Amino acid sequence: MTDRSAQHAIDVSVIVAAWKAAAFIERAIASALASTGLVVEVIAVDDASPDATFDTLTRLAVQDARIVAKRLSTNGGPSAARNLAINVARGRFVAVLDADDAMQPDRLAALVAIADSTGADIVVDNMTEVDETGRPLGSGLFLKSPEFAQARDIDLTTWVRFNNPMAGDDTLGYLKPLIRRQKLLETRVAYDTSLRNSEDYYLVAHLLAAGMRMTYTPSAGYFYTRAAGSTSHRLKPAQTRAWLDAEERFAVRFAPAFSREEAAALARRMRVLRNVNQLVAITDAMKARKLGASAGLFVSDLRGSAYTMGMFARVAMGRALGRKAF
């Protein structure tokens, strides 16, 4: 058992939101604790899981004083769990780790070194896509475009431009940031608890709009797990509506300070989200055979309806040709 009295200045607090993660969270935590070249702690928050997740976290915390186990009394989603973890954290930096992912031992030290040498408040790296056994998938790299083949800063315009949910291009919002904790506290920005996904995107967007500097390294020391045979769940109207609401709140808060480029990027993203919301809402109404509601949705946003009809046509063509439309 690690001596709880052996406390040192903590470089990085690794925050882990966990739900029904008993089968795999030990691997994630072990990878964080194996970090070399710095002092880490792991703040793991169970999001009121119905399985043995909290029992596992409690057992691990007893064995190693670097682990802090917390539990939400009711399920609040990953945003609520991460906000609690940040409130408990004591490190100079906080680093996000998903409960089913892992990282290389030298990853955190490398990111901290970049933050200290450049003055960046947020550092992100590329990721290695792996299966549940840790074996790389395909090329392995998550970001594949030439734009992210070299180290670079990422400003708000770039962050927004590379977070188009329907483009099929590189998506930066999946990256797991290292954030300077004191600057995070100074901005008073927190995870949006109304969101059950895309929460990392909106946290970083708020931090960039608040003046934080973000830099990227192409090294890929984070292992992003894709479960075998898994597919993305079907979007629901409540989810896409939550995206739109979050986007509108963001615009209201920061729009007066947007540059022309930032405003244009946000306008394009807003249009995409409205199109997706329209598509999902109409699809849901049609599946429920609510024809009146479907008709009302079609006339409520004509640009979104044109997008929806185009998507329906692609699906029909794909079926006719016997191949996937997307």
List the helices and strands and how they pair.
Layout: E1 12-18, H1 25-33, E2 40-46, H2 53-63, E3 67-71, H3 77-88, E4 93-96, E5 102-103, H4 107-118, E6 122-130, E7 136-141, E8 152-153, H5 156-161, E9 178-180, H6 181-187, H7 199-209, E10 214-225, H8 237-254, H9 260-287, H10 291-300, H11 302-321
Parallel strand pairs: 1-2, 1-4, 2-3, 6-10
Antiparallel strand pairs: 4-9, 5-10, 6-7, 6-9, 8-10
The DSSP helix count reads 11
Oligomer: single chain
Structural class: alpha/beta
Ranges where pLDDT stays below 50 over 5 or more residues in a row are 1-6, 315-326
Beta-strand fraction estimate: 15-25%
CATH class of the largest domain: Alpha Beta
Radius of gyration, in angstroms, nearest whole number: 21 Å
* Major sheet details: 10 strands, mixed
Number of domains: 2
Arithmetic mean pLDDT: 86
| Ends distance | 51 Å
Order of helices and strands: EHEHEHEEHEEEHEHHEHHHH
Helix percent reads 40-55%
| CATH superfamily grouping of the largest domain | Spore Coat Polysaccharide Biosynthesis Protein SpsA, Chain A
Shape: globular
Total beta strand runs: 10
Known CATH architecture of the largest domain: Alpha-Beta Complex
CATH fold type of the largest domain: Spore Coat Polysaccharide Biosynthesis Protein SpsA, Chain A
